[in-house]
Amino acid sequence: MKFKRTTRVTPDVPNASMSDIAFLLLIFFMVTTAFAARKGIDFRLPKDSDEQQNQEDVIVKAITIVVQPSGRILIDTIPKNPSDIQPYIKPRIAADPNKPVIIQVDENATYGDMMAVMDEVKASEVRNIALPSREEMKSW
Amino acid sequence: MKKHVKLMRKSRVAPDVPNASMSDIAFLLLVFFMVTTSFSVDKSPVNLPRTKYRTEIPKNHEIISIQRNGIIQYHGDRVIMADIQPLCAMEVSKDKDRIFLLKIDKDVNWAIVDELLEQMRLGRARNLSLPTEQRIES
Question: Engineered SS bond to A112: which of A43, A65, B87, B106, CB 3.0-4.6 Å?
Answer without folding.
Answer: B106
